[in-house]
């Protein structure tokens, strides 16, 4: 019992014994326990003909909240191999039950934690969705002379509210450089050395379209030279009516002054096709400030230039620090078929390590299962390609679908709360409502097997007259009985609900199996 008495181990269990675990039995096979339905299904397919696989968390239950039963404790103690997802997916008492009751000669494998070694990409969980917006700094490209400085001055602006650009110091004190609330004058500027860069925070007091005209000049001792001007456009909590060549909405971007090109933007490639930074002309570009950027103005009097304390403003934060929960990786990897292949590899090798004589069976089963998974992946890509670009936004109850979105070119546009265990704030509710209204999404998505925050999202959807559709994450139902069906059903539901004016795509039929 790994140093714990049986009474200590049993104390971690839910003694009601409800929801008996699912078992796929092979009379002569090794005993394998999987914590979640997804991992249990994958293990059953790979171990077919040789392993007896018991799934602890029954279909229809939520791994985030499921507590182990006495039956679960017994199954763990008898297993030769225990497979969990890991990365904090399972409820803590389930995780403790596994470690406390694992037999001395048994193996425990946390599949998601091993998956990156097999080619799975990892995505950090977003702690604050408002910090997943574009990071907008200022930059001077090139060198003029060792003693030159470049002055970037705000000369004009338009918009329904005020624009502020400021730096936050080490101890949190803000220094405003541009603030339109009191009009523009010679003080609305920032000075940078040649070939320098700085992070900045940007605030917009109301939703709508803004423009800000900046002029740059290079200063050397006894002389000054004009570098030109440019007008920058911001879509704050709204969708621009004009079509822009470049929509800047993620990654690191700088308002840049170049000695050769004048003023524009310099930053991450927005198409995702290159990791190399590039130049964007200001007149052809728009910076998108989404509703999730809504943030309360601090009560510190130093922030009074932004407005009244406690009121909301649209904020592009100064730096990337704090964007993610420290060290916390999104555990829902299997929703990306590429990671699904990695799960297959981890489980195959874990079975071989436990039962070397079964290598041939496990390898053959894994190859066949990978082929099926790839057919589901191809089907998913085809049906999701039908969704128009303007509708490729996922709004769900919690932040659990980043892998699915990344795999198929969708965007996680909003959720009720980051984690099912966290209650949404008033700001979260306001931002979610504005996101749905601004994006004009045709549907939001809830998990049929989940309960946390479903009511909140359904109510918001009704308020805005949008559809509520099903999406599956950790568990199965009678209609969605296995992992491959889960992937295919998600793709079909998303395609149908986000493209409601088109014919629904066909169901997935694996004619090759």
Automatic annotation (TrEMBL):
Biological processes per GO annotation: cell adhesion; metal ion transport
One MF annotation (Gene Ontology) recorded for this entry: metal ion binding
Keywords: Signal, Transport
Region (Disordered): 1-29
Keyword Zinc-finger found: no
Presence of keyword Transport: yes
GO CC annotations, alphabetized: cell envelope
Membrane-spanning parts: none
UniProt cross-references to InterPro entries, sorted A to Z: ABC_LPXTG_lipo_actinobac, AdhesinB, Bact_metal-bind_prot9, Lipoprotein_PsaA-like, Surface-anchored_actinobac, ZnuA-like
Polar residues biased stretches: 1-18
Family: Belongs to the bacterial solute-binding protein 9 family.
Name the UniProt record assigns to this protein: Anchored repeat ABC transporter, substrate-binding protein
Organism (species): Actinotignum urinale
């Amino acid at each position: 019992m790994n140093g714990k008495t049986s009474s200590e181990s049993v104390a971690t269990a839910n003694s009601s014994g409800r929801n008996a675990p699912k078992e796929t039995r092979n009379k002569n096979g090794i005993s394998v326990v999987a914590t979640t339905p997804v991992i249990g299904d994958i293990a059953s397919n790979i171990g077919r003909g040789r392993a007896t696989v018991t799934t602890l968390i029954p279909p229809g239950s939520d791994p985030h909240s499921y507590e182990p039963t006495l039956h679960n404790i017994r199954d763990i103690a008898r297993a030769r191999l225990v497979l969990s997802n890991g990365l904090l997916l399972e409820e803590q008492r389930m995780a403790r039950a596994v470690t406390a009751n694992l037999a001395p000669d048994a193996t425990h494998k946390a599949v998601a934690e091993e998956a990156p070694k097999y080619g799975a990409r990892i995505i950090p969980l977003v702690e604050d969705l408002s910090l997943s917006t574009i990071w907008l700094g200022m930059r001077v490209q090139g060198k003029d002379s060792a003693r030159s400085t470049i002055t970037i001055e705000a000369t004009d602006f338009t918009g329904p509210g005020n624009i502020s650009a400021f730096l936050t110091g080490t101890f949190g004190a803000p220094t405003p450089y541009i603030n339109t609330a009191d009009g523009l004058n010679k003080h609305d500027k920032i000075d940078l050395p040649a070939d320098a860069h700085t992070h900045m925070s940007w605030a917009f007091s109301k939703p709508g379209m803004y423009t800000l005209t900046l002029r740059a000049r290079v200063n050397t001792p006894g002389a000054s030279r004009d570098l030109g001007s440019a007008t920058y456009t911001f879509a704050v909590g709204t969708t621009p009516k004009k079509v822009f060549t470049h929509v800047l909405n993620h990654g690191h971007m700088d308002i840049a002054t170049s000695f050769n090109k004048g003023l524009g933007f310099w930053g991450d490639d927005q198409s995702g096709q290159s990791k190399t930074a590039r130049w964007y002309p200001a007149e052809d570009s728009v910076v998108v400030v989404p509703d999730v950027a809504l943030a309360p103005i601090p009560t510190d009097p130093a922030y009074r230039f932004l407005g009244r304390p406690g009121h909301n403003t649209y904020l592009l934060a100064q730096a990337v620090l704090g964007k993610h929960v420290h060290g916390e990786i999104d555990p829902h990897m299997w929703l990306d078929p590429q990671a699904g292949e990695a799960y297959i590899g981890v489980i195959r090798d874990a079975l071989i390590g436990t039962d070397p004589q079964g290598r041939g069976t496990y390898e053959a089963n894994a190859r066949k299962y990978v082929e099926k998974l790839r057919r589901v992946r191809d089907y998913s890509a085809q049906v999701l390609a039908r969704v128009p670009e303007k509708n490729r936004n996922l709004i769900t109850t919690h932040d659990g679908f980043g892998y699915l979105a990344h795999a198929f070119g969708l965007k996680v546009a909003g959720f009720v709360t980051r984690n099912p265990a966290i209650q949404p704030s008033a700001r979260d509710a306001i931002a979610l409502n504005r996101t749905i209204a601004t994006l004009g999404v045709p549907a939001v998505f809830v998990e049929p097997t989940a309960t946390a925050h479903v009511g909140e999202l359904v109510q918001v959807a009704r308020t805005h007259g949008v559809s509520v559709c099903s999406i599956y994450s950790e568990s199965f139902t009678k209609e969605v009985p296995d992992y491959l069906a889960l992937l295919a059903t998600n793709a079909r539901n998303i395609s149908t609900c986000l493209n409601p004016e088109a014919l629904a795509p066909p169901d997935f039929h694996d004619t090759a199996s």
